Every structure is written in C-alpha cells, then in structure tokens.
Amino acid sequence: MKIAVCLKRVPDTESRFTIAPDRVSVDTAGLKFDMSDFDGYALELALRLNEQQGGGPGEIVVLSLGPEGTQETLRKALSMGADRGIHLACEVVPFDGLAIAEALAAELGAGGQNYDLILMGRNATDTGNATVGPMTAAILGWPCVTAVSWLELKEGKGTAHRELEGFTETVEFRLPALLTIDEGIARPRLPSLKGIMAAKKKPVDSRPAALGEPRVTVQAMELPPERTGGRIVGEGPEAVPELARLLRDEAKVL
Amino acid sequence: MSFEGVDFYRLDGLLSEEERAVRDTVRAWVDEHLMPVIGDCYIEGRFPKELIPGLAQLGVLGANLPEEYGCAGLNNVAYGLIMQELERGDSGIRSFASVQGALVMYPIHAFGSDEQKKHWLPRLAGGLEVGCFGLTEPDYGSNPAGMITTARETKDGWVLNGTKMWITNGSQATVAVIWAKTGAPDDVASIRGFIVPTSTRGYAAKDQKGKLSLRASDTSEIHLEDVRLPKDAILPKTGGIKSPLSCLTQARYGIAWGAIGAAMACYDEAVRYAKDRVMFGKPIGATQIQQVRLAEMLTEITKAQCLVLQLGRLKDAGSMTPQQVSLAKRNNVNMACECAREARRLLGANGILVEYHSMRHLANLESVYTYEGTHDMHSLILGEQITGLAAF
Amino acid sequence: MNCLAVAELRNGALRKVSFEVVTAARRAANAAGGGEVHALLIGGPGIGGRATELGRYGADVVAVVEHPALERYNPEVFAATAAAYLRAHPFRCGFFPASAQGRDLAPRVAGALRLGLAADVVDFEVSADVLLARHPVYIGKAMATLRLAGSPALVSLRPGAIGPVEAPAAMRVERTEPALDPGAARVAVTDLAERAAAKLDLGEAPIIVSGGRGLKAAANFRLVEELAAAFGNAAVGATRAVTDDGWRPATDQIGQTGRLVSPQLYVAVGISGAIQHLAGMRTSKVIVAINRDKDAPIMKLADYAIVGDLFEIVPRLTEEIRKVRAGQ
Fold first, then answer.
1. Dist CA A78 CA A202 (whole Å)
2. Chain A residues with CB inside 8 Å of B72's CB?
3. pLDDT value of residue C275
4. If you placed Cys at B227, which of A216, B149, B160, C285 could pair as Cys (CB 3.0 to 4.6 Å)?
5. What pLDDT is stored for residue A6 in this prediction?
6. What pLDDT score was predicted for residue C154?
7. What is the pLDDT of residue B370?
C-alpha cells in the first residue's frame, strides 16, 4: 500500500511552559520537540500495515509542515522505517487547522500520487484541535474516519473502531480514505541505531507550504493558575456533596 | 517526568542530528526497558540478560564498528553517548555493552582474520553470542604484562592454561577473548589473544560472590585447564601487551562517557528531590547546603561533558592518545563518584533505598573507579606522560 | 443575529451536551444583539419528539431531520446536512458539542464550508464581528484565547464547560431533509456497543483512585474499587506499602519505583503521602485526598481534601458520584 502519514513536530508535553514575550505563544527556547504522540501511533500503524503485507509493493511517505527543525522529525520517522519525507516549509505553523489542511490537501491531492491511505494522529498535542484530519479529507473529498482505535483492512474496504464516551462505535469505509489515529492502536517502535544511519540516505523533499488564510488566530496565551493545594473542603461524610460539586463545577473532572 | 539529561552549556548544539537521535533513542530504551527492572536486578544480584536481544536489535553492541559486520557504523561520539545513556541506567549494563563491544568485538575487528571477523562480529552484534575478555589475573591487575596464563603451541593448535579474574560477562559468555603468553614467563612480547568458545573442554567460569557493587552485572573467575584450541583460534594480528591495552583504551573511552550518565542520573534525582522534599516548612532545595551540592554537581558534570566531547572528536579524527583517555576516565569516574555520594547524602535516609538510584550508582562507581585502570594508575600514566619518567 | 446549535443524541435520547450547546447559542445570540436560536436535530424517525426539550434551553427553532438510516450517527450525511443548513441561513455562530461525535462532525462541516472552527472550547465571548474562545492547549498546561472574525464562527464546546441554563422559548419545529442520501455515504457506522467496564491501565485512565495503608486490610480495597467503578473511567492504584504487603499486585503501585501517572483526577484514599508516592502522582491535574490526619503531606498537595474516617466518607462519595453520573 502507498500510505501518507502526516506528522507534527510539537514541544514535549512534559515540558514546563512559559509564555513568550509576544503573549500569544509559548516560549520555545529550551523546549524539546518531537513528533506528536498520536502521530507516532499513526506512523507505527502504517509501518505495521506494510510489514503485514509481506514485502509487497508499498511505500510510506511522511509529511510534515513547519520550520527547518521539522526535518528532524521527518528523519526520525525515516529512521523508524518510513521511505521518504516531504517537508512543507513555513516559518510558523498556523494555529488554524483549516490553514494547515489546505496546505496538506494541496500536497496530497496533487495528481498521480495514488495514496491508499492518509493517516494522521487524532490531534496534535500542542493545539489539541483535532481538526486537520477531517478538514483535509473534506477538502480532498475523501472518506474520513477519526480517532480510530482499531483497524482492519480487507479488499479495498476497512473496518474501524472509535471510542466514544462509554461506547465503541464500529465504522465501515471504503479505500482510499483518510484516518486519524487514536492513542494505543500500535505502540510506536524506537528507531534502531542502524535505522538512524539509514535515514540519512533517504530523500526528504522540501517545498513551501501552500498554507490557507488562517480563520482562527491566537489572541492571547496564558498559563493556568499555579496549584495552590491544601484546601480542606470539610470534615467527615457531610463534606462529600460539596466535594462532588467542586469536582463537577470547579475542577470539571466529572 | 522522565529523565531529561543535563545540558547546561548547550553542548547539544555541538552534536549532529544523528548523534542526538542515537542518544535520545538509547535514553528512551533505558527508560522503557531497563529502569523498570534495574532495582530488582540489583537486589537479586542478577544481570538482566533478557534485555540482550533488545539491546542487539537497537544496535548498541559494537555500534562503532562497520555496517558490513552487522554493526551500526556510528562514529565515536555517538558510541560515547550510548555508553552515557546505558550507564545512566546502571554501570552494570554499560559494562556489559563495553565488554561486548570494546573488549570482544573490537579486538576481533582490529586483530582478527577476515574469517574470524565474518564469523564472530555479526553474531556478537546480534546478541547471539555473548563475549568476555580475559586479561586480568588474580595476581596481575594493574600489571597485566606479568600474566602467567600460557598458550603452548602444539602441532595441531594451542593449549591454554591459567586463571583469569574479575571477568565481566564471564559466566554467561559463549565466547571469550583470552590473553596468554606464548613464550617465556618474562616475554611480554609473546602475549597473544585467542578466541575461546566457552564450551571448549577445560574452560570453567564461576560467579564471584559477595559483591556489594555492580550487582546487576555478571563478574566471574575463569579457569583454563588444558584448553585445546585449533590453530585458527589465535588473533593473528595481536602481538605483545600493546594489543590488549589498545582494547582497554577503547573500553576506557566508553567509561569516560558512561560515568557522565551515572552522574547525570544522580544529579537529576537530587534536583527533583531537593525541590519536592519539604523540611522545616520549605523545600530542602531552598537551603544553602543543598544548593552548593547541586552547583558542584552541575559544574563537574558540565566540565566532564566538555572533556569527552572533544575526546570523541579527537578519536573520530584518529588522533586521540591513550593518555588523553586516561585523563578523561580518571576525571569523569571520580567526578561521578562524588556526584553520587553528594546526591545520596542530599536524599537523606531515602538515599539508601533502592527505589532511588544514587546509592546504587555510588556502589557501582566504586568498582568503575578501580577497574579498567584504577584511578591511581591513570594518575601515574599521566605522570609518566608529563615527566617522561615511569613511576610504575 | 441568529445562532445555531447542533444537538447530539445517543440511542435516541438527547445528551446533556445538547442542552449546553443550545445554552451557548442562546448566550451568543443575545450578545450579538439578539436573534433566534436554531437547533439542528438529526436522527431516526420520531426524533422530532425531543424538540421540546431543546426549546426549554432556549431553542426558538428546532430543525428536525428524520430518516430511518440516521438512527445512528452518519458522519457524511450529518456533515452535509449541517453544512447545508449553515449555508441556507445567515448565522452569527454555530455550536457543536466537543464530544467524540462532535469532534468528528464539526471539522468536517468547517472543512466543507472553509470556515474557521474553534475546537474544544471551554468559554467564549461574542461581539458583532469577533468571537473570542478559550481553548486549553499543550494538554491543559496553557490556555489560548482564540479569535474568529466574521460569520458564521464555528465552535465546538467541551461537554460540561458551561452548564445548561434553562431559558424556555416558544419553540417551533421545522422539518428538513438530509442533504445527502444516506445510501451514498462512503462511511457508515454499523454498530454502537456499550463498552464493558474494562480494566483501564493506570497510564491511560483519566481518573485514578488509589488506596494506602489507611485502608487497614486488603479486603477494604473493595471501597476503592467501588468508588472507581462509580466514576466509570477510573483505574485503581496503590501505594508501595500496600503492594509490598501483597494487598494489591505490584503492577498497581504508583510512585518512585512504580508507575508515574498524571490523570485528570487522582483520588488518594488513606494515603499519607510519603515522598516516594508523591513522586509518582504529583503531576495529576486535580488531586483529592481523604485522610484522617489533616497534617498529612498529601493534604498539603491536594486541591480538595476531606478530613475524617475514610470508611464513612468513601461510601458516601461513591454514592454521590453515582448520582452525578446518572444525571449526565
């Protein structure tokens, strides 16, 4: 199969973030970047799909949009086993998923490429938007299934599971299709050291990203208030209803 | 939060993308596979040999040897970074990789015949064979040239006799590189290396018991009693004590890097603990004594990083000298011992528990301090280099 | 100007988030100088009967699309129908639930119409020409204020972020047709199965309920398990003291030598908070502690703590959580 996997280079979510002087972004100085977690699952899935095919004709093309450093993420994907990379160069990755989707669709939809599948992560861990996949599919006019947690492909058709709140949805679709991949579907492998060396020899084409006009922009970026801790809600079982209320209304974790 | 490493001087900027990728990959492997088991292995006194296939698949074994032998073909800086990351986990695991790569694969590559290289290197790189290195003897540690193990040539091969001690991987090895004198007991030039499958009759290894250091590493004593080997067991290009010493230079190079890993692990642990641990109503990290400890650690780690990076560049350029390696091994292992000790102290009583890492590193590093050339011997090597006068 | 809310059903019933999007649309319409709230309700035959419920939260018009093939979600038909409805009416804003289904649907619609979408929004402000939306980024470690200019501005709203507010309207129903023949859809939902309460991994569970020595005996972990079951999406963890004593398997241990976790919610039951334990869970988003000792270290870290006898408090909390969940 010919599979395109779209990857995003994002700051490690374990980082401690600070706000940049522009007040609309986080300060990236000193942050570690890597491929977004969900994209790693998408890539691993692609690698396994082609390995399961047992040496038949297949190609995994990895795409990423962003500044120069993005190529490092592409090379990581190549060191894990992807065949070639496409770097869609832009100085800053727009926040708006539609602007990104337009650039991806322009690349992926260009004639003569014949992808069987386009995969991406369910969402990027930086913006948390989860919009680029379905938007790209909408622009391309491709069938799309989002947040796929299980997948089976057979004779040009696919069956996928999606995890909803408390339910599992089974979805059937036709290939070619664009799928966004949920966490846990296939744990990403570590690149081998030989793979890292081999990746140096694999091609990465760089061209300007044909970004769309952003409709959504970031007006302000802030850090959440520091954890204060030590708040005693009350004593004994009488305090329970108040705790439940706080969890629901204030902490919003229920 | 996973381990992040120390890079106060932005030395990452001096590494190539591949070098960083290698480091990050091994770091992730250590987090995923070694860290969850190392505490138990240490307590049980067990080398985690179930990790060998994973290490081999990753490409860690003999990673700086050429691809044609199934190795990764990395440069020496990348190799050093691998050692650093492994030792961040545990010195025992780094020792395993050092022995397999620098003390077994390296001599076969440097001194072996084409047949030997083609047969052994891919199997060692793939973890199908485990190697050990037999140089040190019970009475000849710092003075290996005094060895009494002999290799007597017969009409159809060689017969080895002797005892080797402090042999890492000794009991689990399937193949040993044994050094022996082929001439008179005082004929240092007659020292040659031999490839000895450990299944050969007369070869026996037994674990050295009672270790309070390197407990997750296999350390053995090897007895060679009329071990008969074919003619082609000899490493043809070996000649004299220089040959095994050149292997030690390779291994010591890796140790100089490895020690930084152990030191970083202790520093990382100490910093986290200092911020989290509250005593007298404030984190202990807010006290002057702990800040001085941490500042010392950071300073020494940073200096050590500068040392090995330049050392690696020299090695890659082919101009590194054994004395430069001595300086780095001597400094960095000593530095790591100090960091481990200070970290363990900063952690108070918790510092002695296996669930923290500093005490384990500290105990390990006490071995590293005296193995592969003791700290003191490296002082004397430098002394000889400085004055032209050998004091040993 | 008018605003649109796209309602969501599960097995024929409106989900609570449907009322929240209607509430949001009501708020937006009021802020944009007044206007009608339209709710789009797509489902199987008879679904129109649910329209009055939407009217109670402020829907003036409920556009009902009933079709035998739309009892289950159909991404392409739903998207085409919502897009057609947005095209046909001049809306200031369109609100979707940022539920699993809504996060699938909203970007399809936005992509088809080439409209801006602020996804997974927790709060917003609307003026005549600008919509500002608050959206957590970097897995909640920062908060972005997003700006969408022009109409219609599309928003998907995180469930629970704004509660439903009743605002009864003189609701009228308008019937309309699916904008795409369900038979022509290339993607079809063929099954919807309620998940068995599978054992969640500690690393993945959004909620962790953990027990310590304060539980006094292995058998008392039942209380912890029942509380976890009440949450529905919780895993059970333990302290080292507990796993060392064999009350729980070693794999349940959270802490320095066990698992390092950062769930959305961490409930520490009878855990004093030894530093080794705190090292494994201190990055949790919200920490709740139930402990007898108000000076225990865990109480200093907890966002919400209850002091007292856990054997009285935990069963009560289990009951309370069941009630809250039943109401959702």
1. 7
2. 192-194, 196-197
3. 86
4. B160
5. 98
6. 98
7. 95
Supply A177's token pair. 């299709």
With a cut of 50, which residues of chain A have pLDDT below it? none
Contacts of C324 in chain A (CB under 8 A): 244, 248, 254
Contacts of A150 in chain C (CB under 8 A): none
A235 sits in which H/E element: strand A232-235
Does C257 have pLDDT greater than 90?
A: no
Question: Which pLDDT score is estimated for B2?
Answer: 75
C276/B39 touch (CB, cutoff 8 Å), yes or no: no
Cβ atoms < 10 Å from Cβ of B390: 9
pTM of the model: 0.88
Chains touching C, CB cut-off 8 Å, 3+ pairs? A, B
- Whether chain B has a CB inside 8 Å of the CB on C69: the answer is no
Rounded to whole angstroms, the Cα distance separating C22 from C25 reads 5
Amino acid identity at C131: L
Q: What is the pLDDT of residues A106-153, one digit of tens each?
A: 999 998 889 999 999 999 999 999 999 999 999 999 999 999 999 999
pLDDT beneath 70, residues of chain B = 1
Residues of B in contact with A198 (CB under 8 A): none
Amino acid at B258: G
What per-residue confidence (pLDDT) applies to A249?
Answer: 85
Tokens (6 digits) for A37: 């977690």
**Cβ atoms B66, B98 nearer than 8 A:** no
Suggest the residue from C17, C127, C134, C138 to mutate for an interface test with chain A (most A CBs closer than 10 A): C138
The span from the CA of C296 to the CA of A197, in Å, is: 52
Q: Would you tell me which residues 2-61 of chain B have a C-beta closer than 8 angstroms to some C-beta of chain A?
A: 2, 4, 17-18, 21-22, 25-26, 28-29, 32, 57-60
Please name which of A254, B36, B183 lies closest in space to residue C203, comparing C-alpha atoms. Answer: B36
